[in-house]
Amino acid sequence: MLLGCIADDLTGATDLAGGLVREGLRVDLAVGVPEGPLDRGMDAVVVALKSRSVPARSAVELSLRALDRLRAAGAERIYFKYASTFDSTAAGNIGPVTDALQAALGAGISTACPAFPANGRTVLEGHLWVDGGRLAESHMRHHPLNPMTESDLVLLLGAQATGPVGLVPRETVMQGPSAIRGALDALERRGARHAIVDAVDDADLRSIAAAVCDAALVTGGSALAAAIAAELRGRGAVEAVGASDGDPAAAPAPPGPLAAVVAGSCSAATLRQIDVFAVDHPVLRIDPRRAVADPALPAEAVAWAAARLRDGPVLIAASAEPSAVAAAAALGPDVGATLERVLAEIAAGLVDHGVGRLVVAGGETSGAVIAHLGVRRLRVGPEIEPGVPAVSTSDPVALRLALKSGNFGSDDFFEVALAALGSGTLAPRGPAWPPERGEGS
């Protein structure tokens, strides 16, 4: 196994797996720590955890269990994937998990690069930029679980990790892989245990990938992992594969006749997508406060959808503006978990009514839905848009899905995704990746 990947949420895992599939790797995606042995015939295995916003101790324990499974299956390299917006707090979980993986592997300095230029995430002078503005000035400042009020990744990771954090600036990155490797080695000699690496375009990521491809542990967003896959392919380590029963991207489940969207993310991107979808389709907007207080709401929402599904796709959303989220949060510390449970029950009810194509918006929501459905393995197909592949499952239910990070996707993503999930080929949308230097920077 060329690459063993640990992702801290489900949408991040599908994002990562989609990028690896795009680069020609045979990829398996396990939901949760695998209970049995992993398939050694895969080029890569991605383990999707729900560890981004849990207590740091739990995140470390889950990640180490996943690491044990991957190493037992022969993984030669370990990649720890987190959000391209570095979602975390001063207590973790990126730093503690990286420290634990580093110690378990006996690894040297770890590289950290969440850049995803195709989706507007870049790192310059150690600062994370989102859609042209600093992270702390973006919509992530108001994230209900992990509000990001600092843009300097050296400071952010330094507050969580036990060892010193250094920086490899873009001036060095642009000099190529040898310069990057030399800078990392110099930082390690000076005592650094972690290094933020600048990247503003995909050419930067390719150079970083060439420099760190053989490291025991690399951390970052999905774009760097895809660049590492491309580097491995360029070295001849990846065999050409076609559609076959052994390829997890092959033979996706046949789509059912009905389609729906369930949204739990409160990101600005998802709120725009809901508004666009509502122009032509029925939308049920759930008040988060009522979702917490009324146990009858899931059944009512499913009944509302069942009366409309035969006429076309519907959307049920608990997404809300920051002020409404804050009002719901005042009801107690378990509001987020309750909302996830409610939306998961609604999604399961929709599937029971014949929905075979389902789009879920929000990492926490996606994880809750998949867990409630009892899905343990996903087949990964082509990307619909950057960071969001089509996925499917046949056990315990046949479904085609798009599991979308709240921050990802064009304004018309829901319509585009449902159309892609209904196509025979699951053809991806958008330009080929990677773009030439300068694009997406």
Structure notes:
This protein has about 450 residues and is of the alpha/beta class. The protein is about 35% helix and about 20% strand. The protein is built from 15 helices and 18 strands. It has helices at about 10-20, 55-70, 95-105, 155-160, 170-175, 175-190, 200-210, 220-235, 270-280, 290-295, 295-305, 320-330, 335-350, 365-375, 415-420, and strands at about 5, 25-30, 45-50, 80, 110-115, 120-125, 125-130, 135, 165-170, 195, 215-220, 260-265, 285, 315, 355-360, 375-385, 390-395, 400-405. The strands form two sheets. Strands 9-10-5-11-4-1-3-2-16-17-18-15-12-14-13 form a 15-stranded mixed beta sheet, sandwiched between helices. Strand 17 (about 390-395) and strand 18 (about 400-405) form a beta hairpin. Helix 1 runs parallel beside helix 8 (about 220-235) and helix 7 (about 200-210) crosses helix 8. The radius of gyration is 21 Å and the shape is globular.
